[in-house]
Each structure stands twice: as C-alpha cells, then as structure tokens.
Design brief:
alpha/beta; Rossmann fold; 3-stranded antiparallel beta sheet; 10 strands; globular; binds fructose -6-phosphate
Length: about 270
Amino acid sequence: MQIIIYDNAQQVAQSAAQWVKELINKKPDPVLGLATGSTPISLYKELVAQYTAGQLSFKNVSTFNLDEYHQIDPANPQSYRSFMHQNLFKHVDIDTNNTSLPTCAVGENPRTQGLAYEQKIKQAGGIDLQILGIGGNGHIGFNEPTSSLSSRTRIKTLTQQTISDNSRLFKQGEVQPTMAMTMGIATIMDARYVVLMATGASKAQAVKEMITGGVSAMCPASALQMHENAIVLLDQAAASELGEKNYYQWANNENRKLIEDYGYFHNY
Ligand code: F6R
C-alpha cells in the first residue's frame, strides 16, 4: 500500500484527480471504476473543473460504478445513477452508453445481473483504476463486514451501521433502501490500480484497521493489503490514528525523487 497523507480534503481530491487524469491521458480506451458517497464529490468537482478548462476529455472513457441500490428506479434522485449524472456525467463529454452501474430492477434476478456485470467489466478489458471510499465499518463498495474476500458482484443486505451512516442523505418520508448490488471484493481486487480516498475523523478507526490490522473479512478494506497497486489518500483527520506517519511521509518523498529520475511507472 502507498499511503499519502495530505493537509486537507481538497488536496486529497486534487491528488485523486491527478491519478484519473494520468490514466485518461495515457490510455486510449481507459476504464474507470467509480464510487458514490460524500467523499468523492470533491474529486468529481475537480474533474469537472479540469474538463471545463479544456484539460481533460472523457470521450473515450468507460466507467463502472461500485454499487447501486436494489430495485431503485434510475430516475429516482436517490439512485447512484442520478448521483453520477448530477455530480459528473452531465457536466462532461462522456458517452453515457459507456457508463455502467450494477443494477437490478424489479423482476430481475440479482444473481444473473451480478454475473452479467462481471462479464461486462471483463469485455471492457478490466478496470484500470478503481476509485474507492471507505465506510466507518471498513466496507468498500457495499461489501459489509463478513463479506467473502473472494466475492463477486452480487446483492448485499446493508448493516444497520451503514443504513444509519447513510440516513443523512435521505429526507424525512423518503424510503431508504436496505439492499444493494455491489462489486465484490475480488472484483475490486482485479482492478489494475485502486485509489482509496478517506477524509474526516469518522474514518480514522477504519483506516487504521485497513492499514495496520490483519487481513480480515471483518474489515473488507483490509483486503487491499493484498493488492499490488493500492494507493490510500488521506487527510490529517482520517490519518490521525496511524502510528507510522513519518515513515509514510519519508517514503513518499523518496518516491517523488524516483519519479523525477525515472518518470511515472504506472503500468496501465
Ligand atoms: C459508494 C460506496 C461506499 C462509500 C462509503 C463511504 O459507492 O461504495 O463504500 O464509499 O460508504 O461513503 P462516504 O464517502 O459517504 O463516507
């Protein structure tokens, strides 16, 4: 894992945007894995700003989102399709035919839908760069604690903690779904690079467990310890429980020097 600690959430977003930009500029047909939630909103703002400034085009980009609520109408403002439309897709030149979420509409079979999503990712050539957030309980995507580390796209029942963490996003009287389709942990592990963003003190404990705890289904994000190219971008608050901050800082300075000498060695 490469752990990079920034002074604030804005710098985390700028750094994540830099990863996306590098991929888009490097690969003619980039495949980007996307996340929803509060954390990546500032990343999407940054990407929209760069697009508007003419520095970035999404024309050839395909995207796969991590998750979507079960049986939700895509037009529902609470759907992750709507989230992506509002925060990114409608502002940039992406072809929405090339944007996918793991949907399961009323009457569809979650198992068949999960298998089809896996197939679609494979057909696109696999995910080059997967953006992740982390839940307060260590989930990635909606892979809640106890999720199999070998899991693939499927339906999951959300934990009470996740339902209550996300209740802030629902107005009174709005139905909050309790089940979702999500990429599995093995699906995420297949991405060539993963960039996990975590900001705020409410993520500090989960971040500590992900980085310094044992690999365990009780902290699904800890599976990233087994990923060859996992980059963790933190603000000071999210990093506050970590004990080796000076080492991470030093290692990143050394990495920067290597990059200056040899260029980026990201291998998409
Ligand atoms: C969203 C997702 C979730 C979130 C996580 C953190 O697509 O897969 O794992 O990344 O719940 O959410 P926020 O950023 O709202 O704290």
